[in-house]
Amino acid sequence: MPTSRERIEKWSFGYWLLRFYQNMMFRLYFKTEIVGLEKLTKNTTFIFAPNHQNALIDALAMLTLNHSWQPVFLARADIFNKPLISKILTFLKIMPVYRIRDGYENLSLNDRIFQKTMDIIRNGNGLVILPEGNHDGFKRLRQLKKGIARIALQTEDASDGTLNIHIVPVGLDYSNYVRYRSKLLIRIGEPFPVKKYLELYRQNKALAYNSLVGELAERMKKEMIHVEDEHNYESYIFLTEFFSKYYVKFKGLPKTQNNHFEIRKRLIAKLDELKRNNTNRFNSIISKSNELLELMQQYKLKQRALPLLVSKAFNLVWMIPFIIIASPLALYGFLNHLLPILLPFWLSKKFKDVQFHSSVKHAASLLLVLILYPLQVVVVGLAFKSLVISLIYFLSLPVSAFILFHWRRVLYKIMGISRVVRLGYSKRNEFEKVNKLYSELLPELAAVYEV
């Protein structure tokens, strides 16, 4: 277990144990799909560069790539201000990078950090740098910082090109940044060698930094959803999400996250092209999209409800009995997970930045489950003076949590179906307007997509 930054690149058993537990809980939080692992060849030195949209979760996502891997992360220095926090972050293999805003006098401390990165890279651990510098909850790549180029080229130059460092562009795509059991797609892009910029670096450092960062940005955009059009951002996201679901079903494609990603990515490119070549047609699609989106928000309809069908009410035949029958088990699950459910939710609301909510919930749940599960089992065992009962109780905890989750999900589906049915009977014109806009948009998008 590393106790100081001087040994941060060394393998740590304590870190390994924590990571094993973290990965298990992370995959419970996010349905994670990874694409492109075959590109990470052995005996190659990598610096990973993922996009940054979801605070600490983005870093934790990188840990799911390989369980035996213990990469080191670079983060902004201001979060290391308190000694205890600094020790915890160092144990978690996170090192600070100082910026001008941290005080000009502190910039010289980066020299030691850069020297340490050489030890990390030589040790084969791998380095993870989030080159956007800070997070932002939009599906768009922002201006990259030059720190990743500086570290990579400085290290490659110091080894006279023998390390053969490759930078790996990584795309992280969330279906929802906060919701439990939302989807996460991790796309590993094609690694490219730092060495190709080494001669330029020795002649003109600034130009080499800009060139490397420029190539990295273009490669990262290929692996993530990147919506350039800020004005029509919401429409792009809305259109691509419901169209990908339709297209996958229409073509009978496997329902993988990556298939949805490829469809969304192509549609964005086609909409951008349409905007340049046929503004009137583009504006017509966006106008219909905005109208449909406004109606859905007004009546609190979910995207998955499209097209609206009153006949979906037949699902209530099994949903309502399930809710009634499973209620005692769901209540049992809720009471036994009261603190792991409510406390993380309460703590997350202390952060105005929504992008921190999933990080806080995940971190708090990691700690609370680790403490409360054993404590509750011991209390039950002592109360009943039975090892068998305490074992049965322990096994019932994850099962009851599973039932509670699905009970809650079915309850929300019942509420969604009820809204559709009420709209269909009380405001038939609005109901039909939603379906009309949806049915008009689908063939228009299909035509744009398949050009």
From TrEMBL:
Residue span, Phospholipid/glycerol acyltransferase domain: 46-175
SMART domains hit by this protein: PlsC (SM00563)
Top-rank lineage group of the source organism: Bacteria
Transmembrane segments: 360-384, 390-407
Keyword line: Membrane, Transmembrane, Transmembrane helix
MF (Gene Ontology): glycerol-3-phosphate O-acyltransferase activity; glycerone-phosphate O-acyltransferase activity
Biological processes annotated in GO: phospholipid biosynthetic process
One of the Pfam families matching this protein, by short name: Acyltransferase
UniProt name for this protein: Phospholipid/glycerol acyltransferase domain-containing protein
Native source organism of the sequence: Tenuifilum thalassicum
